[in-house]
Design goal:
The complex is a heterotrimer.
Chain A (H helix, E strand, L loop, with lengths): L2 H13 L1 H18 L2 H33 L3 H5 L5 H33 L8 H24 L3 H22 L18 H27 L5
Chain B lengths: L5 E9 L4 E9 L4 E5 L6 H8 L7 E6 L2 E2 L4 H4 L3 E5 L10 H11 L5 H10 L13 H13 L5 E5 L7 H14 L6 E5 L3 H7 L2 E6 L2 E7 H7 L1 E6 L12 E7 L2 E6 L4 H7 L3 E6 L2 H16 L2
Helix pairs in contact in B: 5-6
Chain C lengths: L14 H15 L11 H8 L3 H14 L2 E4 L3 E4 L5 H24 L3 H14 L1
Antiparallel strand pairs in C: 1-2
The chains are: A mainly alpha, B alpha/beta, C mainly alpha.
Chain lengths: 222, 295, 125
């Protein structure tokens, strides 16, 4: 990978370090809170969800729109890289930022599930599906923001994908193959699980690669 | 093939309310080209096309031998681009930007960069957000000049600079010319600077090229001539007039094809022959085109 | 070395003429003696913040006047023409004499009276 792209990815991590740090702390912290009884669990779970979703929204909006708004895009495009290179650097950089918070938070949540007896281990598959869903969700928000030409479209994307999380919970939780095993003492990894996981990963991959193809073809990048 | 730094042939770019049409331009190494025209004439668009930031609808563009925008990533290794509305990355300091640019370009001259920081009166610890207009432009110029690019493409680089800063900046541009393998293309509303440091001047108006010539020849061709006609006399038929103004017996002519022959035609009536500044030529040229277009 | 050369923005004369005049003055005064190497075109352009093409034109015209000589690949030098500085001084003297004659006539002096005044001026120096 060429130097400029690598440097831009490093820049993305550097510029967002405070945000990612807060996300990591919030992700772990909310898991700790969730360990304290049913009330704590509700508060912790809600905070945990908000942290991950919020991180995704802020990273996409701030990471992409800000550069455009602040006219910093011209500076970046004066560097020796192509439009495709820019898109690649941006996407990889922001995904890495998100991934740090996401992976730490998910790991913490899994630790809680397996360590705490009052939380049934059977919920692990559902937890993973929810987590990967949010990762795919981020991919869609990021990809959409990259393609969007104005703030209105971006806001619409953010609103719609936020509703998606709720939809997920309503659609996947009652699914046959998930519902029966959510409260079991041991996790069940069945075909339903793998099918849903497969879909989520496909969405993730598509949402991240599509902008690359489309934006690179645009003739008026600036 | 050719060693020109910039070549544009028949370039066309259409926007909803504006079209840049049939633009041909070339820049040789060692040259400074001043690019002038009214606001909205297409200067920024032309410079963006040269940098591969937008793709033309028709025509060919080559920069440092590379086709644009296809090979823009390669060309940009040796081209420095500065535009007046360029901003640094938010939430980072000038010092961070210097390290960032240094890590990307092998040609970075740290000593020169440090000298420029002093000369431009900047501080590496300054946050990008806190820079004033003038400081911001000087910062971007610093980041570009310090890596000694072969070609400089500058879009109104002296905007918002006070006279001292302008002098410092122009001095650095001229310093580039010690090396006859480097060149500069710059657009500016500051006709005094353009007139002074350009080897060639290119004029653009409403998306079309009006003129592109050697500066000295260009300035030599334009004159304002004050005449006083005797009672009842009329002017001889004159070709190539840009404008003509009559106030009783006093006539003021502007021509862009001045020659000794031209002067001879008018000899007995001439009160004064004046050279024109680039600013005056600019205005006369644009006014003439507007009249012709009937606007 | 050439920091004294100046281009005036308010001078109506073109830049190349201003440069030529200042170089000629230095040659005439002897500050730039015959054989002295002139700054390279690019060096002078950078020092004066003036386009290369303007310096080129000045040097070309100075060469046509015989004030300087350009050796291809080596640079430009103040011409070694015998008494070239003298030629310039000759031109200066002629100009001053014609001016004096003109003023003398305006004052109504005769040629003899004017010649007497000139002799007195020579004696006092």
């Amino acid at each position: 990978m060429n130097t400029v792209i690598r440097k831009l990815i490093a820049k993305e991590l550097h510029v967002n370090r405070l945000l990612v740090g807060i996300g990591v702390v919030a992700g772990i912290g909310s898991t700790v809170v969730a360990a304290f009884g049913p009330v704590g669990f509700n508060i912790g779970a809600l905070t945990w969800l908000s942290t991950i979703i919020g991180m995704g929204v802020i990273l996409s909006l701030y990471g992409i729109m800000n550069e455009r708004k602040e006219h910093a895009l011209e500076f970046v495009m004066s560097l020796p890289l192509s439009v495709a290179g820019y898109v690649r650097a941006k996407m990889i950089g922001l995904v890495l930022c998100f991934f740090i918070t996401w992976s730490v938070s998910v790991a913490a949540a899994l630790v809680l599930v397996f360590a705490k007896d009052s939380v049934p281990d059977g919920i692990a598959p559902y937890l993973l599906l929810l987590s990967v869903f949010m990762l795919a969700n981020f991919g869609v928000v990021l990809g959409g923001t990259m393609l969007a030409r104005n703030e209105g479209t971006t806001t619409a994307i953010v609103i719609i994908t936020n509703m998606g999380v709720t939809l997920f919970m309503f659609i996947v939780a009652p699914m046959r193959g998930i519902r029966e095993f959510m409260w079991a003492t041991a996790p069940v990894w069945n075909s339903t699980f793998w099918a849903v996981l497969g879909c989520e990963l496909a969405v993730l991959v598509i949402s991240l690669t599509l902008p690359l193809l489309i934006v690179a073809r645009r003739r008026d990048f600036l | 093939m050719t060693d020109k730094h910039i070549e544009m042939h028949g370039v066309r770019k259409s926007y909803r309310f504006f079209t840049l049409d049939d633009l041909s331009l070339d820049l040789a190494p060692g040259e400074v080209m001043g690019f002038v025209g009214p606001n909205g004439a297409g200067k920024s668009t032309t410079l963006r096309l040269a940098m591969g930031l937008v793709a033309p609808d028709a025509g060919e563009i080559r920069v440092l031998g590379q086709p644009m925008p296809a090979a823009s990533a390669i060309a940009k290794r040796e081209v420095g681009y500065v535009s007046a509305d360029m901003h640094l990355l938010p939430n980072a300091t000038l010092g961070w930007h210097m390290d960032f640019v240094k890590s990307i370009y092998p040609g970075w001259d740290a000593g020169y960069a440090a000298a420029l920081v002093k000369r431009f009166n900047l501080r590496p610890g300054q946050n990008a957000r806190s820079l004033s207009l003038g400081e911001r432009i000087k910062a971007v110029l610093l980041l570009t000049l310090a890596r000694r690019p072969r070609l400089l493409v500058l879009d109104e680089p002296t905007t918002g600079l006070d006279p001292v800063a302008r002098h410092e900046v122009i001095t650095e541009f001229m310093d580039v010319l010690h090396d006859d393998s480097r060149s500069i293309l710059f657009s500016s509303h500051n006709t005094v600077d353009v007139e002074r440091i350009s080897d060639r001047i290119t004029f653009i108006d409403r998306g079309r090229l009006v003129e592109s010539s050697n500066k000295e020849d260009f300035l030599d061709r334009w004159r304002r001539i004050q005449l006083q006609l005797p009672e009842g006399a009329a002017l001889p038929a004159l070709p190539d007039l840009v404008s003509r103004n009559q106030d009783g017996r006093f006539v003021t002519l502007v021509t862009d094809q001045f020659s000794d022959g031209f002067a001879a035609l008018l000899a007995p009536h001439v009160r004064e022959v004046q050279r024109m500044s680039l600013e005056e030529i600019f205005v006369a040229n644009v006014m003439r085109h507007r009249e012709v277009r009937g606007s | 070395m050439y920091s004294g050369i100046n281009i005036s923005q308010t001078d109506a004369r073109p830049m190349y003429l201003q440069i030529m005049e200042q170089i000629r003055a230095r040659v005439a005064a002897g500050d730039w003696p015959p054989g002295k190497e002139l700054p390279s075109i690019r060096a002078l352009a950078a020092a004066l913040n003036v386009s290369v093409i303007t310096i080129k034109r000045a040097y070309l015209d100075l060469e046509n006047e015989g004030v300087i000589v350009t050796r291809h690949g080596k640079g430009s030098f103040v011409a070694d023409a015998n008494g070239l500085a003298g030629e310039l001084k000759e031109a200066q003297l002629q100009e001053h004499l014609e001016q004096a004659a003109g003023i003398g006539r305006q004052l109504g002096l005769t040629s003899e009276e004017l010649a007497k005044r000139l002799r007195r001026a020579l004696e006092s120096k």
